[in-house]
Amino acid sequence: EPEVTQTPSHQVTQMGQEVILRCVPISNHLYFYWYRQILGQKVEFLVSFYNNEISEKSEIFDDQFSVERPDGSNFTLKIRSTKLEDSAMYFCASRLNQPQHFGDGTRLSIL
Amino acid sequence: GEDVEQSLFLSVREGDSSVINCTYTDSSSTYLYWYKQEPGAGLQLLTYIFSNMDMKQDQRLTVLLNKKDKHLSLRIADTQTGDSAIYFCAETPTTSGTYKYIFGTGTRLKVLA
After folding, report:
1. Is it true that the peptide bond before B93 is cis, omega within 30 degrees of 0?
2. CB count, 10 Å around CB of A32?
3. Contact partners, residue B95, CB within 8 Å, separation at least 6
4. Choosing among B101, B102, B105, B107, which should be mutated to test the A contact, i.e. which has the most A CBs within 10 A?
5. B31 chain-A contacts, CB cut-off 8 A
6. Which residues sit opposite B90 in a β-bridge?
7. Measured between beta carbons, which residues in chain A are less than 8 angstroms from residue B88?
8. Is B41 in Cβ contact with A43 (below 8 Å)?
9. Residues A89, A80: Cα–Cα separation, whole Å
10. Using an 8 Å Cβ cutoff, are B73 and B87 in contact?
11. Which of A5, A108, B13, B99 is the most exposed place for a label (fewest CB within 10 A)?
C-alpha cells in the first residue's frame, strides 16, 4: 500500500538556523497538509495546500514558515529562523478523498 | 472555538472493554476519526465514521456517534496490553473548506495485565 514518507526522521538544528522538512505524499493525492505536535500535547493543524497554493493556514503558521511543492512529488515545510519553541514532531499528510494519510513524522529538536 | 475534548487517562484490565470518549465542536463535521499513537511513533488511523452514521463496527472496535450531543466514543473489546497508547479523536469541520483535522487532546490508555 502506498505511504507518505517523511525525511529526516530526526533533525537537530541550532536556534536561528533554517530547516527544511521533506515529505513525499502518495502520488495521486491532490491535497497536502502539515501538522505539529509539541511533546506531550495534541496534534495541531499548520497549513493545507492544494493546486500549488496555500488553501488554509493556522495562527501558528506565521511568516517564518513556508511550504512548497517544488517538483510535483515532494512537499516541503521550511522554517526560516528556528526558535526553541519550534521543537516538535511535524507530520505531513495527503489525501485524494478521505481519510488523510499521515507520514511517520520528523522530530525537530532546536538547541 | 475549535476545542475537541477528551478525558486524559483511562486504565483498564486486560480482557475488559475500554471506552474512550470525545466531545467535538462542529455539528457539521462530515467525518470523525480515531487515531492511535504509540510512544515516539506516528499516527495510526484506527477507524472513521461518516456523520450520517450512528455506529460503525470494525472487529474489536465500535464507534458510536451522537450528533445531537456532538459526542463520539470508541469502544475496544477484549483490550490487550498492545492497545496501550494515546488515542486521539479528530473532526473535519466543514467551515474550513479544506477538510483539515482538528484533533482532540488525546486519551492515554493503560492496559493492566
Report:
1. no
2. 22
3. B26, B28
4. B101
5. 98-99
6. B33, B103
7. 42-43
8. no
9. 17
10. no
11. B13
Pairwise CB contact (< 8 Å): A102 & B41: no
Residue A45, Cβ density class (10 Å: 0-12 exposed, 13-18 middle, ≥19 buried): buried
How far is C-alpha B58 from the geometric centre of its chain's CA atoms?
13
Residue B33 in contact with partner chain A when CB distance is under 8 A: yes
* Closest residue, chain B, to A47 (C-alpha): B100
Mean pLDDT by groups of 10 residues along chain A of 111 residues: 91 97 95 95 95 95 94 93 96 94 95 95
Tell me the C-alpha to C-alpha distance, in Å, between residue B60 and each of A15, B15, B63, B78. Answer: 46, 11, 10, 7
Convert the pLDDT of each residue in B6-39 to its tens digit.
999 999 999 999 999 999 988 787 899 999 999 8
| Amino acid at site B1 | G
